[in-house]
Each structure stands twice: as structure tokens, then as C-alpha cells.
Amino acid sequence: MTLMIDYFYSPMSGYAYLGEPRLREIARAAGASLTYRPMDIGRVFAATDTVPPFRQSDARLSYRREDLARKARLLGLPINVAPRHWPTDTALASRLIAAIALEGRDPGPASFALLSAVWADELDIANPEHVADALSRAGLDAPALLAGAETPEAASAVGANTEAAIAARVFGSPTYVVDGERFWGQDRLEDLAHRLAAPSRTNE
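-> C-alpha cells emitted (204 positions)
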């Protein structure tokens, strides 16, 4: 039986940006199905009484920036820990990723292009022109992908992802869910890899 990973995240999430390449490696190595589920992180925060990172104390926010920088160095990824366009409206980016998934295609390249837009390229993923720039840099068909993002089906999919995240007791981004078991944050990816290697193991 093919294992399934539900990947709940926001396309402006710094930790999703850092974790996505490794997530794809883990899924591929395990032969697992990876389902991209971009969600409305504002609704998730509200439903779980979670304080958004950008509203946390200066002490916590400054630590977050240190942590992002440290992990980016270890992973060899470029990062601006205080990006110009963060936080931003993620509705367009989320619909775009969801539309690709609805078509049965791999959303990975577009997803990582949008995450990189925020954290490496100083682009605003709420701005269609910036989104087109990010997609084009990744060699993707920006006009077609932007058109797909405007369909009602894409909006409905994001709404469904958000409801599913809340039902699964997701409270932050990224969260990876396998058979109801949650792994929150890219620093839990190795735990996820072990879980996929031992699918019959139950929680203790």
C-alpha cells in the first residue's frame, strides 16, 4: 500500500521553504505519495488560538530569524530572514498551487518557486506580476498557471485544505500528516522519514 503524506503549509512559510526540497527527497525515497495542501494559515491560526509569528514578541521573532539563517546555511539555501513582502496575502499563490494539484500534475516546481520568491527573491506573491516573474524564472508557464488560479475549483480546494487542516489539528506551517500522525516543522523531517520506513509502527 502506498503511503500518503498530506503536506499542509502556507506558501509564505519560511520553514516550508527550507523543508520542501528535503520533503520531496524523503517522499521519493519512501515511494510515498506527496499531496500538496496549501491552506489559509490565518484561518488555521484563528481556529487553533495560535499567535502568528509576525505578531509574536521581539525576542521570539529575533530568535526565529537566527534560526532561519542557521538552517539556511546548513542547507545551502539563500535566504533573507526579514523579507520585504512578509507577511503577505497568500490567496493567489495557494490557489495556483491547488489548481496544479487538481489537474493531477506535480505542484512542486511552482510551489518552491513561490516560496523562493518570498524568502530569496524579494517578490510579493500577492502581486500577479511578481508571481509571473517567479514562475518564469523557474521555467514554468506563468500565464497558464495564473489562469488556473482564477478558477472557482482552485478556491474551493484551498478552502477544503484549510478545513482538513483544522480537522487534523494542524496549527502551523509546514505540517506533514501520515495516517493521522502529525509532524510539525521542517526540523521533524527526519522523524517523518523514519515513520515512512516503519509504516506499521503505532504511536507510543
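The chain has nine helices and four strands.
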